[in-house]
Amino acid sequence: MTSLFLVTLCGGALVLWWRASVEARVHANAAASDACAHAGVQLLDGTVAFKELRPARDARGRLALRRTYLFDYSEDGASRRHGFVILRGREVELVGLGPTLVQGPAA
Predict the structure, then answer these.
(1) What are the residue boundaries of the structural domains of the chain, listed by start?
(2) Within 10 Å of residue 66's Cβ, how many Cβ atoms?
(3) What is the pTM of this model?
């Protein structure tokens, strides 16, 4: 009985983790797409790629996860440059195109 409960609990935790990860990727895709549209460049491959996951503090000081995603974009259709999206919890913290910060504290 106890092992069945633990398996169910772990399975539920994995489902919640997967759902949060998918939601974060959707937010990162939208942020990358918006940044590319705002800068007048083309988002290549149509998606972001997960790079890193680290613990961080959110705006209220609570423990949150900081996820970093990378994406490629093109200014002229022939070159390929790299951009990034950093999410802290559910909020977009930074979006950058190459050396240019598009959204964040200094933008």
Answers:
(1) 2-103
(2) 17
(3) 0.83
96, amino acid identity: G
Instruction: Find where tokens 């070159």 sit.
Output: 79
Q: What is the DSSP string of 11-69?
A: HHHHHHHHHHHHHHHHHHHHHHHHHHHHHT-EEEEEEEEEEEEEEEE-TTS-EEEEEEE
Q: Which two tokens stand for residue 2?
A: 């106890």
CA dist., res. 16 & res. 1, Å (int): 23
The tokens for 81 are 């440059």
Q: Maximum CA pair distance of the chain?
A: 62
* pLDDT tens, position by position, 49-86: 999 999 998 878 889 999 999 999 998 888 889 999 99
